[in-house]
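cron nightly-structures :: item 1 of 1
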Amino acid sequence: MKNIKIATAQFENRSGDKAYNLSVIRQLTAQAAQKGANVIAFHECSITGYSFARHLSKEQMLDVAEFVPNGPSATQLIAIAEEFDMVILAGLFEKDADDKLYKTQVCVDKNGLIAKYHKLHPFINPHLTPGDSYVIFDLFGWKCSILICYDNNIIENVRAVKLLGADIVFMPHVTMCTP
């Protein structure tokens, strides 16, 4: 396994302002790259914002959500990863072709999507679909996984990804950043 240097970043995002949030992600990724990090991990829904979705209708959620990996935010995130030769983990609301909605954390690098994970226990909006599987992926020879916020409160989830081989578990949260 190669040594890995992981930066973490949490910022006060703007609700629904993906352009602004991605500009901050770019700025913080540049800083992390300058300091020698290989990976930067952002909080859940760092791209879309989070707590504003509490009272959105399904139609409003579908307007905010994007396809992954071909949506504009994931595409821009991949471009940022390429610009700084970094692995980036960031969160957004995702939709699929059947109009199912997920709270998703993506992991990208300059070549594209490495992994994505759907939160198993979403509760901010009633229109979100729970994820139904764990994810295990490789970063620099390390087996990694993702569990979003409340998923980590269920110890069996943490135990399961470890049993599936995870050496590193990314645990994005927005705890204490809600009104």
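cron nightly-structures :: done
The beta strands are 6-9, 39-42, 87-95, 101-109, 112-118, 136-139, 142-146, 168-170.
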